[in-house]
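Dear colleagues,

As part of the handover before I leave the project, I'm documenting each prediction I ran so the next person doesn't have to rerun anything. This entry is a single chain, and its sequence is reproduced below.
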Amino acid sequence: MQAAQRSGAEAFAIAVPNGDKNLAGYTSKIIVKSGSPIKGLKDLRGKTFAFVDPASTSGNYVPALELMNAFPPRNNEDFHTNGAFFSSVSFSGKHQNGLQAVRRIQGCPMICKCFITPSLVP
């Protein structure tokens, strides 16, 4: 939407494997340092958390919606306000910054659109 507003960009169709609509799109992942006690969404409550960018679909909008669905009646603001759900919440600015934060800070989960599993982050 921002791309359309800023520069007149238009959405276009993409091919999907074998024409299967279920394989279309991309995904967001929450990553944590290997060995973290965080095993699911419920374990994120009270933790420090980093989204990627306020305007990112995979790094903010989709994960916030999934969190709202997992913890009703929480709203979007709850996941972006320090102390409301996460003890501290921020934006890393780009996916690479978030990956570096996960490596440096034990227990700092973040959103990443890359296909990374916890065991791959040393």
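The chain has one domain: 26-120. Strands lie at 29-31, 48-51, 88-91, 110-112.

All the best with the project,
I.
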